[in-house]
Design goal:
The protein contains 12 helices and no strands. It is mainly alpha-helical. About 40% of the residues are buried.
């Protein structure tokens, strides 16, 4: 397992969140032990939950999202094929998110925002990104894959972001958005239009962690450097 795939933040590339199909099946078979181990490790660090939340990570949400994939593993495999290549529309979404997160991280360092003030901005950015990316996914993937990806992303959303962005959450994450009627039996049932586009890919475009998208790595690195300073200040207040 790749440890960094569990440390979720909103600028990470989650197109292959659970790795290839073999890795995903392995995780699904042992997820109980993995989650127990993660929880035990986090419990040894008093500030872990609060600090990680500044990146968008909530352990219970990650577990719910993994369960979504495990319950529809064959469609996840289909999605990997769809998400394998870049998509200009999604790259613009990610670039915009990185820019806004850079500004927020800088504001957090300079103005020492309260947690409430920080998360008002952070959660707004998160939903703007999700709304933008949904448009990109719909252009290039089948409705069944988009439904699975939408449910996965919605399960990852932190509780306080759901509470701060009730209208956005209801609009983007209602049950009807998950296309569960198309996902029964491995996600079959896409329309002819969906099937013609389901092999076109949109993934590996967002966080810049691999440096494959023209300079995104340096941007993400700067964001994390600033957030590290911000989180250090938060930890001192805990």
């Amino acid at each position: 397992m790749k440890p960094d795939m569990f440390l979720m933040n909103i600028t990470h590339d989650r197109s292959d969140f659970m790795g290839d199909i073999a890795m995903a099946k392995s995780l699904c078979n042992s997820k109980g032990a993995v989650f127990q181990c993660m929880t035990q490790v986090m419990e040894t660090c008093k500030a872990a939950e609060s600090v990680l939340s500044y990146w968008g990570h909530q352990q219970s949400s990650v577990e719910q999202a993994v369960n979504v994939i495990c319950n529809d593993i064959q469609l996840y495999d289909k999605g990997l094929k769809c998400f394998a290549n870049g998509n200009p529309a999604l790259q613009r979404c990610i670039s915009d998110t990185e820019s806004k997160m850079m500004d927020l991280a800088d504001k957090q360092v300079q103005k020492k925002l309260s947690p409430d003030a920080y998360f008002r901005d952070f959660c707004g950015i998160h939903f703007e990104q999700l709304r933008c990316e949904l448009g990109g996914w719909k252009q290039t993937c089948g409705s069944d894959v988009v439904g699975l990806k939408t449910e996965f992303e919605c399960r990852l959303i932190q509780t306080h972001c759901k509470n701060l962005q009730v209208q956005n959450y209801q609009e983007l994450c209602g049950e009807s958005k998950f296309a569960k009627n198309l996902r029964a039996g491995g996600g079959g049932g896409s329309s002819a239009t969906d099937q013609s586009t389901s092999g076109t890919n949109i993934g590996n475009v967002n966080s810049g962690q691999t440096g494959g998208n023209g300079g995104a790595s340096s941007t993400s690195g700067s964001i994390f450097a600033l957030l590290l300073s911000a989180v250090a200040a938060v930890a001192l207040m805990l």
